[in-house]
Design a protein that fits this description.
Layout (H helix, E strand, L loop, with lengths): L3 H5 L3 H15 L5 H12 L6 H12 L4 H9 L2 H6 L44 H7 L7 H11 L6 H18 L6 H8 L5 H14 L4 H14 L3 H12 L6 H14 L3 E3 L8 E3 L3 H9 L34 H10 L2 H10 L1 H6 L4 E8 L8 E4 L2 E5 L11 E10 L6 H5 L3 E4 L3 E5 L2 E3 H8 L6 E5 L2 E3 L9 H5 L7 E5 L7 H7 L6 E8 L4 H11 E11 L5 H18 L7 E4 L1
Parallel strand pairs: 1-2, 3-5, 3-6, 6-7, 6-8, 8-10, 9-11, 10-12, 12-13, 13-14, 14-15
Antiparallel strand pairs: 4-5
Helix pairs in contact: 3-4, 7-8, 12-13, 13-14, 22-23, 23-24
Length: 575
């Protein structure tokens, strides 16, 4: 059950007890219910290593009834987190709703891939959760930031942007530390200035290897230095003494701390020491006291709400600036959306001289019942598909997201582009439209596109009337991390040209529906540009030879198996 190297690190007394426990478990190999009961019993007396927690939750999945699985899972959720084990998501059958775990601010935690282009109007229902997810360093911070940008309806507050940038940099700094240097690692965690984050990650790290006595003691010293959470300190002592059974000195230190803070200590252990008492509701109280689940920290400032309106009648006609007028006009014409917004805020003269409405996202949708053809929310616009060119929108600066689809009018977007001043959108989804290459360049040629989805978009070079091919489009998006292109022409040299392009980021999702793709050149492309654990989907058209598809799949899969570690391999699907 446990590796021999782990057993060699155990205290003699714990090893003796655990060896006897293993023998009892072996006798219940065919009785899953009894086996789970024994694990529950052991966990109520001693700290339990992660291997046993993994086994317990795996056994719950094998119960014949969903209700039994849920009950057995639920009763061990809080104990598992208390034991520094955090399995998220739990994965129990969800017929009765999700099982909630105490929220952890972990450096690494599983999250569903964010690759589907999804835009809506108005503030997302989970925007507060997303802001919380970028408020501490973690491996998913870039994904969560993109999700937050997509679900917003106006530019993120500057303090949220700075928070994200700081936490992203700190994650890189923490990841660069030697995995065996616990002291330096904790010191860097402290730079986040978030006690919950520090505590959650130290506990999670201890949970991966309970025998790391040095880390235990560093954590106890950290809690002493904080002098704010005596409750967590006492419980950490309590856990330590349920694993290092032979450390008499630490037990006496715990006894003294209990005396200093007011013994007896109420604990969930069914073998309490003489200065402890067992309590039925200790775990609920423990997580209530130690886990702040309210995340309303970074809401929009109140002063962002519009309370004063102006028109040209109350405008001060003459403004005295410390620089010449041509320079002012140069600034207005070349400023990005955030700078332009700040100029409009500081002085209405700028908007009157150059009226450029800032649009965060522009989305076309089906017309909901009893809803107007156009709906404005903060800096975003939602328009009924058939009415995009009838709304009177003019001269807009689109800063972040564009989602256009029309089954009836393939020229809808082409007719609207002349009404746009500028487009810097990072997230673009276009379905069933005809465009010229010049029009496409206007939308994506700025080079800031992160997520591009084109489906059945017919693009013609206006000069020679030739159909634009995939590689000429991808050349325009050097920062792309999500690409989904279907229904656009390719050439025998598409893969070769792609393999020679330079991209600023590793791609997380790359989907193509096409006719030709040379496998060896494509291998060079994905080796250079695809991120670990990325997703690749190649859909060849129906007239493609089955043997060629099989050969393509085999060559690419072999390259992936050779180039990436098992835990980092991209997922590929070829049909």
């Amino acid at each position: 059950m446990l590796e021999s190297s782990f057993k060699e690190s155990l205290d003699p007394s714990y090893l003796k007890i655990f060896t006897k426990f293993e023998d009892v478990l072996k006798a219940t190999k065919d009785d899953k219910g009894k086996r789970m009961d024994l694990i529950v019993q052991f966990s109520s007396i001693y700290m339990m290593p992660k291997e046993l927690w993994d086994e317990y939750f795996e056994l719950t999945h094998k119960t014949p009834h969903a209700l039994e699985e849920r009950e057995r899972t639920t009763i061990m959720v809080l104990p598992s987190v208390y034991h520094f084990f955090y399995k998220y998501p739990i994965g129990a059958r969800d017929h009765f709703g999700p099982i909630r775990l105490p929220k952890r601010k972990l450096l690494r935690w599983k999250v569903a891939a964010i690759s589907t282009f999804d835009l809506g109007i108005g503030i997302s229902s989970n925007s507060e959760t997303l802001i919380n997810d970028i408020s501490f360093p973690n491996e998913n911070i870039e994904r969560k930031w993109r999700q937050y940008e997509k679900s917003s309806s106006s530019m993120p507050p500057q303090k949220v942007v700075k928070l994200y940038q700081k936490m992203k940099a700190l994650f890189a700094k923490i990841e660069a530390i030697d995995k065996n240097d616990d002291e330096k690692w904790i010191k860097t965690l402290l730079e986040v200035e978030d006690n919950e984050f520090v505590e959650h990650n130290i506990e999670y790290r201890i949970g991966t290897n309970l025998t790391n006595k040095k880390l235990w003691k560093l954590y106890i010293q950290y809690l002493k230095d904080q002098q704010q959470n005596s409750y967590r300190l006492l419980h950490t002592y309590s856990k330590y003494c349920r694993f290092f059974l032979d450390d008499v000195e630490m037990k006496e230190e715990y006894r003294q701390a209990a005396k200093d803070y007011g013994s007896p200590v109420e604990v969930p252990w069914k073998n309490p020491f003489d200065f402890e008492i067992f309590g039925e509701n200790v775990l609920k109280n423990y997580f209530f006291k130690n886990d702040n689940l309210s995340y309303n920290y970074y809401e929009e400032e109140e002063n962002n709400k519009v309370t004063v309106y102006f028109n040209t009648d109350n405008l001060i006609k003459q403004q005295n600036f410390p620089f010449k007028t041509p320079f002012i006009h140069y600034i207005i014409q070349n400023a990005n959306a955030r700078v332009l917004q700040n100029l409009f805020k500081c002085c209405k003269w700028f908007f009157v001289k150059n009226p450029i409405p800032l649009c965060y996202s522009l989305v076309t949708k089906q017309r909901p019942m009893e809803k107007p053809q156009i709906n404005f929310y903060q800096q975003s616009v939602e328009v009924v598909k058939i009415a995009l060119n009838e709304t009177g929108i003019e001269n807009i600066y689109l800063s972040t997201a564009l989602k256009i689809m029309s089954l009836r009018d393939r020229m809808m977007l082409s007719k609207f582009i002349p009404k746009m001043f500028k487009c810097d959108a990072k997230y673009i989804s276009i379905v069933n439209q005809n465009l010229t290459f010049k029009e496409l360049q206007f939308l994506i040629g700025h080079g800031n596109v992160v997520d591009l989805s084109l489906s059945e978009v017919h693009i013609i070079d206006g000069d020679n009337k030739k159909e634009v091919v995939i590689e000429d489009i991808i050349k325009l998006i050097p920062k792309a991390q999500f690409i989904d292109i279907a229904g656009i022409a390719s050439t025998p040299k598409t893969a070769q040209i792609l393999s020679q392009l330079k991209f600023e980021n590793k791609m997380e999702s790359f989907n193509l529906k096409m006719e030709n793709l040379e496998p060896n050149d494509f291998v060079e492309f994905i080796k250079k540009n695809l991120a670990p654990k990325s997703r690749i989907f190649i859909h060849f058209k129906f007239n493609h030879n089955v043997d060629n598809i099989f050969n393509f799949r085999e060559i690419v899969e072999n390259a992936i198996n050779t180039h990436w570690k098992e835990s980092e391999k991209p997922m590929i699907k070829v049909i």
